[in-house]
Specification:
single chain, about 80 residues, mainly beta, SH3 type barrels
Amino acid sequence: MKVEMDREQVMVFTPIHRIEGDVHLSSTQRLSDRLNQAKEFLPITSARVYALDGRLLYETDVVMVNKSHIVMMLERHETL
């Protein structure tokens, strides 16, 4: 059975990077639910990885972020 997923635009900060992209959530799931799952890595799609000084380092279809390295995560909105 295929589960319909919603995309939530996020901005993730690690100690050395800022990552912008999409986290996929089921229709009943919140971002906090996804972070609290036992899985060690969080996939972020349509990802852009920046140095903390704002330089774009690379873009990729998907990046797997180790959740233990996440310092802060923000939901992005079109007005940002």
